[in-house]
Give the backbone structure.
Amino acid sequence: MSGQRLILADHLVDGVDGNVKDKQGVLVSDGRIAAVGNREAVMKDTPPEIEAIDLGDVYLAPGLIDGHTHTSLAGDGRPYAEMFSETDEMMVLTGVMNLKVHLDAGITTVREHGARNMVGFALKEGLQRGYFPGPRMQVSGRPITCTGGHFHMCNEVADGEAEIRRSVRRLVHEGADYIKIMASGGGTAGTIPGRASYSVAELHAAVHEAHHFHRLTAAHCRAKESMVRAVEAGIDLMEHAEFLDPDDELRFDPNLAEKMAESGIWVSPTLQAWTRYYRIVELRERRDLGSLHLSEEEELKALEARMERRLDVMRKMLDYGMRDRIVPGTDSGVSRLAFGHLDYDLQLLVQVGFTPAEAFLSATRVSAEAIGMGDEIGTIEVGKAADLVALEGDPTQDVEACSRVAAVFLGGEQIS
Ligand SMILES: [Zn+2]
């Protein structure tokens, strides 16, 4: 990723605020943004021999960030047990496939939220060597989980504070960029999503040890009980945040929301995952073509009603001042969540009351801050990595523009 190039676009959203600027230029030098601003001014400061790419009538914006992926899983609808019956080698290949799909969709950074054995680390190493294309990657390595807990098949089981500290040390030694811990049950057979898996003391041991090594923490929290404990333990980022009770019902809790807001915890609500939004999109598209069977119409109605219950919890949470702490994440790889669709989560954020501009900023500047990369990515500013996406349409006015990707640049290199 060397050399200089000039990228020109009719419109630019730098991601610092929600404003659009017209007739802009970005000068890239050795993968980083060397200048950005009015096209004429940037061109004047650019040596004439520099290659210029004029993208024309597009909105050039910072690359998107997906805070929650499982790159080694195919997202093809098979249950966990079947996906994890594959070899590590096959899982690495699955990751290579998935990462390219995400990158082509304008997603230039991902967090890898838990793979088996060394699969996550191998994927990151392969990317860094340039063996295959993909977004920048932060890896957790393996998620820390209790005996029989969610994702225990990844092989980082730890019970009690001492074992948890040892797990964190091991993962950091192996190259983990952050620590993922499963604070409640989940989709793994035999676990209870509505129940916490760890005590406050156990979660705090993970946080304390991770922070000691300058690593951030993310906790899988479906259960309300686990959300309370995560906040108390000082977890940096809460995944899912469903307010789920042991009876599998979602029940919003204002006291908990207040504590979350006070604590400054980041929240990744993984809305498309819970709502099975891919299926809703699929059925709606067919309904618009007039080709829906009666049973499918009923399925759609039930899915939409179920989705509203989840979105309602989210709306209530936002009333407590959490709006600028929300980080979209796809949970791609699990269940039937195929890669390439952070746009779905942005659409759902708009449905819970975000403006399109706020939704866009949550997937760029806000996400970069939440994952500790605010100095490196998330906005188009001098000194940052030249990770850019060109969209056909204004993402600050129309959330669907995020689905219309015209070009992607990673470290200044044009990928697609
Ligand atoms: Zn997940």
In short: The chain has a mean pLDDT of 97. Residues 294-318 form the longest helix (25 residues).
